[in-house]
Write a structure and sequence with these properties.
InterPro entries: Cellulose/chitin-bd_N (IPR004302), GlcNAc_Chitin_IntDeg (IPR051024), Ig_E-set (IPR014756). It comes from Streptomyces uncialis. This is Chitin-binding protein. The chain is 12% helix and 30% strand. The protein is globular. The chain is of the alpha+beta class. It has a single domain, classed as chitin-binding protein cbp21 (Coagulation Factor XIII, Chain A, domain 1, Distorted Sandwich).
Amino acid sequence: MRKKMYAAMLGLATVGAVTLSSGGASSHGYTDQPLSRQKACGNGGIVKGCGSIQYEPQSVEGLKGFPGRGPADGKICSAGNGGFSALDQPKQPNGTAWPATQLSGGQSYNFRWQFTAAHATADFKYYITKNGWNQNAPLTRAALESTPFLTVPYNGQRPPWTLSHSGQVPSGKTGNHVVLAVWTVADTPNAFYACSDVKF
C-alpha cells in the first residue's frame, strides 16, 4: 500500500513539474534583427564577458506594462535581472561600443524575433531613443520617445519560431540610438525585452 501511495505521489509531483515548466518560464525569445545586446553576447557570440546572459539570451524577462510598469529605469535592457546587468551598461564589457546595426531614417526594415518557446502573445512594441539622449548612461524611459514607432497586435496567438515585423524606421534620427523591442505575453504577468544598438 505504501509503495502504491508513494508511486501516486511521485506521479502527481511529476505532472506538477511538467505543468509548471510549460507555463511562463518556458516562453523565451530575443531579437536578432537589429542585433540585440543579448544575441551579441549569447552562445559564444561576438561580445565576450557578459556573464550568464551568454547561456540564455532568450531569458530577458520582466514585468509587462511598459512604460507605465516593467523594469526600473537603468535596468530596462536587462529587464531588471541582476544576472544580466551587463546588458544595461552603455558599453560592452571590454569598454568598447556595442555592435550597432546600420539604419537609414525612413527606411523599411524587418524587425525579427527568434523564439525558443512560443507563448500566447498580446503584442510587440518597438521604441527608439530621442535625439540628444545620454549615450553614456543606462537606458531610461526619459531617453526613449514616449510612444512606440511600431506596434504589432498579436491577439493571443502563439508566434512561430521565427517572426518578422516589417515597419518603417523613424526619420530624423542621426548618430547612435537604441531600439527597445518589447514582446508582451498574453497569459502571464511578464514581457520580454531586447535592446539593439543602431547607427543612422
